[in-house]
Amino acid sequence: MIDNNGRTLTVGQLHVQVKRLAFGLSQKGLGKGDVLCLFAPNMLEYASVLYAVSMLGATTTTANPLYTSRELAQQLKDSQSKMIVTIGPFFEKVKEAAAECDGAIKEIYVLGDAPGAQPIAPLFAQEGPLPPVKINVREDPVVLPYSSGTTGLPKGVVLTHYNIVANINQIMALEEDVTFMDDTIVMAVLPFFHVYGLVVLMMVAVYKGIKMIIVPKFDLPEFLKLIQQHKITILPIVPPIVLALAKHPIVANFDISSVKLILSGAAPLGKAIESEVNARFPSIKVKQAYGMTEASPATNVVPMNGLRAGSVGVSLANLELKIINTATGELLDIGQEGELCFRGPNIMKGYLNNPKATAETIDSDGFLHTGDIGRVDNDGYCYIVDRAKELIKFKGFQVPPAELEALLLTHPAVADSAVIGKPDEEAGEIPKAFIVLKPNQTATAEEIIKFIDDLVAPHKKLRGGVAFIAQIPKSASGKILRRELKAQELAGGQK
Q: Which of 9, 92, 206, 298 is such that its CA lies 20 to 30 A from the CA of 329?
């Protein structure tokens, strides 16, 4: 691994670091059944922490480093985290979040330095025998990322050792001989806290010993400079970055001829954008993959020997797919559009301490309901055509409407609210709020936007604006009818 400042970490050094840190953490009381929260940007030490925790039979919950202290505290409490590893600039925010956890956080360690913080460096310097640990691979969680699933607030996704190892093998079965080869150099700009970066980069690439250039955040000129400097061959990225490569004039100032493959995931990539990249860079192959956190994450990848624009590819090995009518549950056939449901060894154990949400997502036959509407052609290629689930996807990041709606209702002037995803060429979707004001109360769109800005991470901001309406459309059971609001938005009914 090489970071953007030129620091390096070899496979051998990683192995030594992991064993030392595992011993150090065990001496501080971390063991099987415990949860450690990793709250950091992409960096060399991310792998060391992740694998050290797993070696002890403990679990890592990965948190978005852009979270506010309020958002972080929610995840710390829900995951029942015992320790936190972060970086110096985030220390004060982490302290605030930990203070809300009623003493549950026993240690906060900092990678680097911060005034008053406990550095993790001494734990990397210790050596000793690891405590014996018996891991039940099918039952014991190894990572606990958070996802909103098909609806509602973020939930802890329990991914076991078996889930992750299965998905690594599923990806390898399709990709090993054509994508992940000895001369592969991959760009790690996808955030490691997100399951796409966590598994495809932090696990698959490390497992294969692939040279990886680690970038803490996306900046187009820096991104292009690193491709040119390190002769990157594979770019696992999200659609907004693909869009930039297709359209931005600055790209012409850099030599990116080393790139052989763009692998796009985390959100739909339009066929037109694929075609634009192909036209601009005929030597670069573009393909898509599909999955969700609850599937560890990959279910579909376009094979290199059968590229097909607009498709998310074929199902991976050992996966069963059924397509159902969302209204009746009826099984549908090849070519028919319905909800995609998968069953296989990579499907999560369930949502943490949430049997109701688990039962709503994994049916009695063990199929994971994705909330995505798609079809499969006669060759087994899958196409995503719509989303039944409520989730908004901003540059590949999840934005749960229910979370924003709950926050909006805490504003003193707001009587009711609804949030939808507004189509946006660059981001895919941007959150837009519809507000019903209380009688005799006033508020401007700017005030509402500022109110939310102060409470949430950047990807959840109301970039789509605010519209004031007389009533939120709801079903007889009280469920918000977002499709009606989206239809109004597309028709230009709301300004």
A: 298
